Amino acid sequence: MIKTLFTALTLSLFFYSATAQIDSSLLRTHDTDTTKKGLAMDAIYDRPFLKLGKLPVSIGGYVESNWQYASTSGITVGNQFQFRRFSLFVASSISKRIKFLSEIEYENDPSGDPDQAKKGPEFEIEYAALDIELHPLLNLRGGMIVNPIGSFNQNHDGPKWEFTDRPIAMTQMLPATWNNTGFGIYGKHYRKNWMFGYEIYLTGGFNDSIIDNTQGKTFLPAAKSNTSRFTSSASGEPLITAKLSARNNNIGELGLSYMGGVYNTWRVEGTPVDDKRSVRVLDVDFNTVLPATRTALTTEWAWVFVDIPPNYTQQYSNRQFGGFADIVQPVIRGKILDWENAVVNLAVRLEYVDWNVGKFTSTGTRMYNDLWSIMPGISFRPTQQTVLRFNYRHQHQRDITGNTIGATIGNTGEFNFGISTYF
Fold this sequence. Notes:
Layout: H1 2-20, E1 27-30, E2 49-52, E3 57-72, E4 75-95, E5 98-107, H2 114-118, E6 122-135, E7 138-146, H3 168-172, E8 179-191, E9 194-203, E10 239-248, E11 252-262, E12 267-268, E13 271-272, E14 278-290, E15 295-306, E16 319-336, E17 339-354, E18 370-383, E19 386-397, E20 410-422
Antiparallel strand pairs: 1-2, 2-3, 3-4, 3-20, 4-5, 5-6, 6-7, 7-8, 8-9, 9-10, 10-11, 11-14, 12-13, 14-15, 15-16, 16-17, 17-18, 18-19, 19-20
């Protein structure tokens, strides 16, 4: 950990020194408007970068910090102050049609995999990929990529959202910022008011931890703790991730994505020791802005299917379902103090997750282990790159039998205030 911190500090000092030695007139800032509507697949590059004169390298990043006070079934741990993320982007145009982007991230977010959160803060490379552009409809990408399952997994930067917490279904059912080593192709096509895009990748993937974890349930985010996936595959089979996107300037963007492959270690030294067991995810996402009121709607819903060994109890589900819907309404636009294009938004997020879809085979009664949440909030954006946000969450959670009494289930009330900004 000390070595990692020292390396990160050295990199920061290097970039600061390089900037200090260059005439400020050579610095150009690419102020990407984070509300600009491209395709979700563009989110990786649709960020503000600082370019150092004629050098081929651009840098950028974002930061997130929050205050939280939560109570579940009358139990609270009081005021919590959380420095959740610091991300550094480094991009380079190596030559015509060849570019590289990387993202190095410090993360200490307890809202994802609890086991990973117990390990404390971590520095990691979240993205590091080379793009070779052959044709608008055919481009190659390889390295450490973020799998394009749904929209949030690629478009997750804190400054783009009006809520301090990431969507529950995308972090505790799907593994948010799910990244793997692999290769693939992507492309886009424009026709009048329409934009079309696709992505197809073959990468490393999941392992047995999705059904062998301390959560005691089918839990895809547990695989994020397996860092060996960047150098080896538990199953020896590729994880396939594919997405189709279509956007109409007057309607919005619709995305359909699929991710699937064998997750278990089914052979050892070439000898089969188990049946192949697969995990499959289907995801639908949609976003739009209503022109009359400038109301923004963003929603994503996913279905998870996992082959479970026959000797497992139904506590480990073979089906899961969940998603969210965000509604954001600007109520004030214009000059506030010295900010010319400031915005005040009212927002609400609706969420639902069911980790055990189905019925008990012994009784025919419904399994629960579900959660719903409503989170209203207000946000202030002095610029599109910076957001101050205040949210209140009301959440109701049941265990597999429908019980709502306990320290981690039941009714939760939660206040959050946070800041997030690109830099």
